[in-house]
């Protein structure tokens, strides 16, 4: 269940601002046989959010879309205090609204941010918690909601949230947790805000059809102590990604590119084995980009074209959230996975090669 509380005003704020609060309840998806017994619990918790409503013409004229950008603070209790504990997270998000000028309207929220976990894997005291082994992880979410306006100040809503928490392979074991949560609630506006249909022009067609960007990538994974190596080893990875894309719709782009990463974890493994193979990995990428103003969410399928160490599956997925911080500057984060297992999170800074 969710209780939502909202405060905003059009007359006093140039960009309307909202406060929200929600209650969550859900379940854990047992995506691996190793976690089936521990997954039998029902997470529940609280969300407090603040967001800006981008409904003025400078934000809507290109896309014909009203959206929100903001931050959500989450507290989730995993309903298993001895093994899983709880988490707190602060997640930046973007939330396109679907026909918000109607009494019934919808919204879809995308977010990615840091999460702090209280219960971790320990081979002696907590051996069954294969979800989490590092206290600082990342929370990725995809949420869908339906809202109904009772009057200009009150509305009720219902929806479902899909949440994923993982340390991205910074430390093993790292099965990660997928836990959908349901929500329903009510909201109140201190000052009525009338949503009007934005002009849906063809201005997006004047944007360059072809665009691209270059990203510098950096990340960290930890290698556990082993015989002959009693200390935890920090393994830094770095590299470059080049993407070329073509806009095929108001919100869609098709992307093709390549990335070359020096895998610090593989380098440490090869060094310990006295193996002279290269730790560099090269991949070819193809996929889709969701374009919402300055924010983009890409889902790319990758195939290794160069991986001498042969330590990973030949095919992988990459999910990336990026923000255009200026005319050319790009900031973002990405999750790389091999099937259902997260490999690594990274941070990235990039340069856009078209406007």
What does this structure look like?
By secondary structure, the protein is mainly beta. The chain has two domains: 17-188, Porin (Beta Barrel); 207-352, Porin, CATH 2.40.160. Helix content is 4%, strand content 55%. It has two helices and 16 strands. The strands form two sheets. Strands 1-2-3-4-5-6-7-8 form an eight-stranded antiparallel β-barrel. Strands 9-10-11-12-13-14-15-16 form an eight-stranded antiparallel β-barrel. β13 (295-306) and β14 form a beta hairpin. The chain is flat and about 70 Å long. 38% of the residues are buried. Residues 1-13 have low confidence and may be disordered.
In short:
Helix content is 4%, strand content 55%.
Summed up, the helix count is 2
Order of helices and strands: EEHEEEEEEEEEHEEEEE
Q: CATH fold name of the largest domain, please?
A: Porin
Q: Assign an overall shape.
A: flat
Largest sheet: 8 strands, antiparallel, barrel
The number of distinct structural domains comes to 2
> Which ranges are low-confidence, i.e. pLDDT below 50, for 5 or more consecutive residues?
1-13
Oligomer: single chain
Report how far the terminal alpha carbons are from each other. Answer: 43 Å
Kindly provide the radius of gyration, computed on alpha-carbon positions and rounded to a whole number of angstroms: 22 Å
- Content-based structural category: mainly beta
Spatial arrangement of strands, main beta sheet: 1-2-3-4-5-6-7-8
- Report the CATH C-level class of the largest domain: Mainly Beta
Let me know the average pLDDT.
Answer: 87
């Amino acid at each position: 269940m969710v209780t939502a509380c909202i405060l905003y005003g059009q007359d006093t704020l140039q960009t309307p601002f909202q406060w929200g609060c929600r209650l969550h309840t859900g379940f854990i998806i047992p995506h691996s046989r190793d976690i089936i017994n521990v997954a039998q619990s029902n997470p529940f918790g609280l969300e407090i959010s603040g967001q800006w409503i981008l409904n003025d013409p400078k934000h809507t004229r290109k896309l014909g879309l009203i959206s929100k950008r903001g931050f959500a603070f989450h507290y989730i209790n995993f309903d298993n205090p001895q093994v899983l504990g709880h988490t707190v997270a602060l997640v930046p998000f973007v939330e396109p609204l679907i026909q918000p000028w109607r009494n019934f309207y919808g919204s879809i929220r995308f977010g990615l941010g840091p999460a702090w976990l209280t219960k971790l894997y320990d081979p002696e005291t907590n051996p069954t918690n294969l979800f989490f082994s590092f206290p600082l992880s990342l929370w990725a979410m995809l949420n869908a909601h339906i809202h109904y306006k009772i009057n200009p100040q009150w509305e009720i809503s219902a929806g479902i949230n899909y949440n994923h928490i993982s340390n991205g392979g910074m430390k093993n074991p790292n099965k990660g947790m997928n836990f959908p949560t349901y929500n329903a609630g009510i909201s109140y506006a201190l000052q009525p805000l009338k949503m009007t249909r934005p002009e849906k022009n063809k201005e997006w067609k004047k944007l360059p059809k072809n665009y691209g960007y270059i990203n510098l990538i950096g990340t960290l994974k930890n290698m556990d102590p082993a015989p002959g190596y009693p200390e935890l080893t920090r393994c830094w990875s770095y590299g470059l990604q080049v993407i070329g894309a073509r806009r095929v719709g108001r919100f869609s782009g098709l992307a093709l590119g390549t990335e070359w990463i020096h895998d610090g974890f593989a380098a440490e493994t090869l060094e310990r084995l006295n193996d002279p193979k290269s730790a560099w990995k090269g991949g070819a990428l193809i996929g889709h980009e969701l374009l919402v103003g300055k924010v983009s969410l890409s889902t790319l399928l990758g195939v290794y074209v160069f991986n001498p160490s042969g330590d990973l599956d030949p095919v992988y997925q990459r999910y990336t959230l990026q923000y255009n911080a200026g005319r050319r500057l790009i900031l973002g984060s990405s999750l790389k996975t091999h099937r259902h297992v997260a490999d690594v999170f990274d941070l990235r800074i990039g340069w856009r090669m078209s406007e």
